[in-house]
Amino acid sequence: MLFKFKEEGIRVELAYGILDVSEDLYHGFKPEHLLVSAIAGSSAQEFTDLLELHHTHVDDFFIRSEVTKDKKDGKITRIKLHFVVKGRNLNIDKLYRILEKARAQCAIIRSVENSIDIVETLELVSLN
Known about the structure:
Strand content: 35-45%
CATH topology: GMP Synthetase, Chain A, domain 3
CATH class: Alpha Beta
Number of domains: 1
């Protein structure tokens, strides 16, 4: 990747498109948001792959994130990922096991877990 500096931040051209990164929300994505998105996105992909592998159908799921920073230096110390899974006849224990496996396979989480506390929780919404 080639990162080009511009007045408002940094730009990188990727196969999918152009990504502008800036602390100013009007000129690009904040680095903090990209970090959390990478972690949540990678975790979600592993979770989805394992749901399929275990023949577990969910109607929908989404992730809410919460970020905690050190007040002194602004360092991200904790990211909470709350998975909300919707479906019929789902077993919460099985979903937790799948989520644990997903975490173990998630390269992004494994890369930062010694410096950022990553907490994953799960909520099941049963559909009738």
